[in-house]
Amino acid sequence: MSLDVGEAGDEQLDRSTDLLGDAFYPVFRLLFDEDGDFVGDVATKLEQARMSTTAELYLSRALAVGTIAGGVLWLLGTVLGWAVFALGLVSPDIISLGLPTPDAATADALNALTVPAVTVASGVVFGSIGFALGFGTLVAVPYSTASGRKREINMLLPDAISFMYALSVGGLNQLEILEAMARADDTYGEVAREFRSIVRETEYFGTDYRNAIREQAMVTPSDELSQFLSDMLSIVNSGGSMEDFLDDKKEKHLRTAEQEQETVLETLELFGEMYMTLSLFPLLLIIILVIMSMLGQSQERLLYATVYGLIPLTGVGFLVLVSTVKQDEPGDGYLQPSNSSDRLQQVTREGLVHMGLIESFVGEFRIFDRIRSREGTHKTARLLRRPHLFFRDHPLYTLVVTVPAAAVLLGVAVANGGAPLSWDGMLRTPVWGTFVWWYVPAYVVGIPLAVFHTWNVRSRNAVVGKLSDTLRKLSSANDTGQTLLESVETVADTSSGKLADEFEAMHAKVNYGMSLRSALVEFNNKYHIPRLARTVKLISKAQEASSQITEVLTTAAQASETQDDIERERKSRTRMQVAIILMTYLTLLGVMAILKTQFLDVMAGLASQASGGGDSLSGQGLNFGGGIDTDLLSVLFFHAVTLQAALSGFISGYIRNADIVSGVTFVVVLQTIALLVWMVVG
């Protein structure tokens, strides 16, 4: 048994980057101590990130990239510094350090040096920024990659330990468990790649597997995996029971997963309170700018910057902040079929373009070209007959239809004169103009995506929702002496729902000649849910060793129940955070509407009265509304609440389900509320 040496995470170096690194290696030796802490830390992160290069070469390359970026920005900065004076944008006379000069000649000499000095300074500043960006970005890559691997390892480790425990119950020895774990990268991702390194050291380099485990414990980015490997090494050296050890670790890490989930939820609660402040700050700034405009100080540029700059940046920044805590479930949920199953290999690759098994022979024989054409026609006809089922399974494919449709509708509106083509036209009809340019595309694209995504989620949840109970039933049936296939038949006959239907179909496939493992893989890949994939992987691997896997099924049921508990707690706690975000938005919308109807219009009326009443009010120092443009402010207010609705919707969906697409439903609802309100007040 052997493993492929190449790994997906390994960096493939090209000769150009090597040349850069070699050219700047003397500079590296001049600036850095090869035995210093910084170089050593970079070397550690490179190893943890699985980037196959040395720290010396990598830092030399970073210096080269930084120098190139710095040189480009230095040239740009120098040209800009000279251009602002050459084009008359800035006068040299207004730039002065305020230094006393003894005579006029000295003052003239200093003034003559102003333009060259500013030009040089501009080049130095831009060049320094370019070098810092180039060098810093490249150095940050291994740190970011290692951190991402650490997060994924920590998330998958409890399920990986359950998988190893199932293998030990099935009778596999220590080396076989390590090899099986190393091959499970389709399910356990970075955890499997860590074990692959152990197996590779033993198979290709002749290292004793105990030493390989020890070395991997020292270089893995995850402290939890490091501790697990160290403890496992102690069991191996002492000759203790691996099964008991894995059982204990399984329980411990399941409890740890629940504790980490609690920490994440507490952090999200803090973020929910932060969002109230962040989202209300642009509103406060808009109110201040409006008051300043009413006092005769025009602040149009700041208003534009607040509405079209600050509000989106605030929302996107908060979304990024949440993403650092709210982790997406790793993996795509697909299981790799066995090498012998060509049909499953092709089915896994099937999509909108790839037609399946025949695809592999197209171009070799003319008959397969005809078959592919017929198959494509069949698939197209099936899609046209039942497009809703296709879009249910692939919600994002709705964009292929809706985005061109939205573009066509906009084109028709522009051609018919229904859409304002200038900013003045937008000011005359703010609601209609915004509706045509923003709301129509948002509805055309968003509503189908929201509907089919919600349908897809419910379809997948119909399978996962009863997974724990079904595993318990499988365990009970297997405990009576039935084989796994017989247990599947029993559960299918005594249960109801989509999962029971899938079990019935699985049993029929096996009766018609398909292996049970292939049937399990095909069932999993139909829904490709990461949680389901780990369960199927656990069961399919265990049943290869024995048909009596009651304890394995019980373990899978426990892991699934723990995940159910975590999901229920997450939904309960995040419901409050979503409520805070939605109420904050509704508050903002209400304040903006009141500001428009009860403040802005009233003050504009006072301004007109003041101008119509002669100089009586002006003579008393009351000059309200000198810089006010009610039409402009109405548009800006409407656009502000519209942008805030979109951002609040996406943030709500991401907090709720760790899925940005799930926020589309919230976006559609919130924007509809904003549109209805502004149709009344605008």
Briefly, what is this?
The protein is an all-alpha fold.
The proportion of residues in beta strands is under 5%
Mean pLDDT: 80
Instruction: Output the radius of gyration.
Output: 32 Å
Q: How many individual β-strands?
A: 0
Q: What overall form do the CA principal axes indicate?
A: globular
Structural class: mainly alpha
- What's the order of the H and E elements? HHHHHHHHHHHHHHHHHHHHHHHHHHH
Q: Work out the count of structural domains.
A: 5
N-to-C CA distance: 73 Å
How many distinct helices? 27
Low-confidence region ranges: 4-16, 339-365, 614-626
Structure, described:
This protein has 682 residues and is mostly helical. It has 5 domains: 15-146, no CATH class; 151-257; 259-330 and 564-681; 342-463, no CATH class; 464-562, Receptor-associated Protein (Up-down Bundle), CATH 1.20.81. It is 78% helix and 0% strand. It has 27 helices and no strands. The protein has helices at residues 15-23, 25-31, 37-48, 55-86, 104-112, 114-169, 174-182, 185-204, 209-219, 223-238, 242-294, 300-323, 342-349, 366-385, 387-393, 398-415, 423-428, 430-464, 467-479, 484-494, 498-511, 516-527, 530-545, 550-612, 616-619, 630-657, 663-681. Helix 8 crosses helix 9 (209-219) and helix 11 runs antiparallel to helix 12. It starts with 14 loop residues before the first helix and ends with a helix. Residues 4-16, 339-365 and 614-626 have low confidence and may be disordered.
